[in-house]
Amino acid sequence: MAYVAVKGGEVAIGAAHAWLARVRRGDPSLPQIDAVQIEAQLGRAVDRVMAEGALYDRHLAALAILQAQGDLIEAAFLLRAYRTTLPRLIDTEPVDTGAMRLHRRISAIFKDLPGGQRLGPTTDYTHRLLDFERPEPEPVITTIARTASPAPRATDLLGAEALLEPDPSGTGEPADLTMAALGFPAGRDLRLQTLARGDEGFLLALGYSTQRGYGNTHPFVGELRVGEVAVAITPPELGFAIEIGDITLTECQMVNQFAGSKAVPPQFTRGYGLCFGHADRRAIAMALVDRSMRAEDLGEDVKAPAQNAEFVLSHCDNVEATGFVEHLKLPHHVDFQSALETIRAMRRDAEASDARL
């Protein structure tokens, strides 16, 4: 639940809104930025807001960032709230990430990856130094064929030798988090849906914790790919699928060591991450946490926070977390007066008891 409204003090609230508008605009002598500029030049921020707002619309995400003064959690909140007003027209077909038109494809486990490695637009190999005199880049024309040949998955090479567990994804119809509240125990389909729109910082912290000993994982990035995938629907009046557009996705296949059990030989296990836009960090963190939450399924002891599915899924949604944390700023006068009177009564009782002694 999110707390978004409070009544009373209408004049003060109106003045606060007007002040916010002036602060948001900033120095009127400077050019005003707009959502088009944010969409074009702050792509990573737009991608994060789309993921956590659970709505793929680059322009609306940019508009939310502008309205929120760059507060990405608030922007995701705005986008999520808007999404609830939209009608649900039709379900799409499952997207085929194997047929992704690749911008970026790397593997940390195979140097000579069949199909080649592609670094793509990345800061992985740059110095983290502020550039005070950033030159205008030379225009580069990158062509990605609409009918590009699918690149084989790095994990398929391990699977061919039976060194990697079979894909643990279910074969039935997945549950839909947008149509029903999350409950426990939650299947992997619901867990992945929840992680996909979870707070990136929370997922990053949990993923980091698994590498520091708070979870039984020894991870390798089997493959990380970024690119465009086609979205298709099957209109009832046609009876066959038609493509309606493309979206950019990041997918991470994580490979983890597994000592085996009485029923399963030693092998590698999987962690999976898939999210909107170009978001390496989110996809990797998601894959780490996905693998950690599979501990019970794999017969491992559940000892760490990242392995506890109920803990992770109940706290990873920053829209819900924001509602519960920031509602503390709102008036609690009656509650506090009640607590204050209780404390005073307890002190009077304690003082009277001491006097009798």
Give an overview in words.
The chain is α+β, with helices and mostly antiparallel strands. It has 2 domains: 74 residues, no CATH class; 193 residues, no CATH class. 39% of the residues lie in helices and 13% in strands. Strands 1-2-3-4 form a 4-stranded antiparallel beta sheet. β3 and β4 form a beta hairpin. The protein is globular and about 80 Å long.
Taking the sheet with the most strands, its summary is: 4 strands, antiparallel
User: What is the beta-strand fraction?
Assistant: 5-15%
Q: pLDDT average, as an integer?
A: 89
SSE arrangement, N to C: HHHHHEHHHEEEHHHH
Rg result: 25 Å
The percent range for helix content is 25-40%
Physical arrangement of strands within the biggest beta sheet: 1-2-3-4
Total number of distinct structural domains: 2
The number of helical segments is 12
Alpha-carbon distance between the termini?
49 Å
Write down the overall geometry: globular
Structural class: alpha+beta
